[in-house]
Amino acid sequence: MEIREASALVTGAGRGIGRAVSLALAREGANITAVSRSAAELDELVGEIEASGGRGLAFAGDLRDSSVPPGAVSAAVEHFGGLHILVNNAGVGAFAPVAETADEDWDRVIGTNLTAVFRMTRAALPHLFHQGGHVFMISSLAGTNPIPGMAAYCASKAALDHFSACLMLEVRHRGVKVITLAPGSVDTDFAGASRGPDSSWMLTPEDVARAVVDLLRVRDGAHLSRVEMRPARPEKR
Asked: Given 6, 17, 46, 173, which residue has the most CB atoms within 10 angstroms?
């Protein structure tokens, strides 16, 4: 698709992968609606986009609030005249064995990683149907690879993968591409202590952002519905 002047909404845009995707799309000329819980991080991001000649809009809110997804979509459409690209990136984790996982942690992970994606996508679809577009689901290899101590996160990403596949089959005849992008280890704050003293072996947020841009350039008649990314040379333990 033509990225320049396209309207793109990115969740979890304040840091990590979401920030990198927002900046990469802005460099290609897209207009960015950046969604995150942190207004300060969004203001910094939008300032950087606008300083480089781009256009950005900050929309702060917790995606678990059912009013935030439709509100963010409405803001993007009103400010930029439509919506062409949705990047469902926001995600959280809970790091504990199942026996020690609290209800609130389970609800926080499922609410952010799955329910909020459903609500955001549902709000965006009428606009994407109207003018065509792309929905990116930033999933994880954890959706297909069980990890002890991360059951809530793995379950949320496995469910996201299936949600994405169902959605892809429902909307591909209406001019909307749904792309699940599943990276492995990415050097972000989410990785925490698992990065170890040397994180140079890991994927970077910019690697994922570059993949999003490249996938937008696939010709209209071809649909890469799922892409997995891994570090080229994983860490030796």
From this structure: 17
